[in-house]
Amino acid sequence: MNRIEELFRKKSNKILNVYCTAGYPKPDDTIKVLKALQDNGADMIEIGMPYSDPLADGPVIQHSGSIAIANGMTIAKLLEQLNI
To answer: Exposed/middle/buried for 56, CB within 10 Å: 0-12, 13-18, 19+?
Structure first.
């Protein structure tokens, strides 16, 4: 059983899933933000990798993605921050 299946088995409602843009508000804030979300009750965290043409995203995610790209966020940097 994977961690998501286990979460839904243990907690069938009131699951807090939070989206977080990697590299926002600053390039080195990703891990700090993830830790703060975890410490404050997030059950699941979706890490969004910003890209240059976010047509399907709403204005808030587009804005955070634009800032993260300007900050120089890349997949390689994210994986390095996550120690993957």
So the answer is: exposed
Cβ pair 6, 38 in contact under 8 A: no
Catalytic residue among 28, 29, 43, 57: 57
**Residue 67 and residue 16: Cα distance in Å, rounded?**
25
CB 47 within 8 A of CB 22: yes
57 catalytic residue (yes or no): yes
Q: What's the predicted TM-score (pTM) here?
A: 0.83
User: Is 28 a known active-site residue?
Assistant: no
pLDDT tens digits along 23-60 = 999 999 999 999 999 999 999 999 999 988 877 889 99
List residues bridging with 81 in a β-sheet.
none
Name the catalytic one among 6, 28, 46, 80. Answer: 46
Which residues, 6 or more positions from 69, have their beta carbon under 8 angstroms from its beta carbon? 23, 50, 51, 52
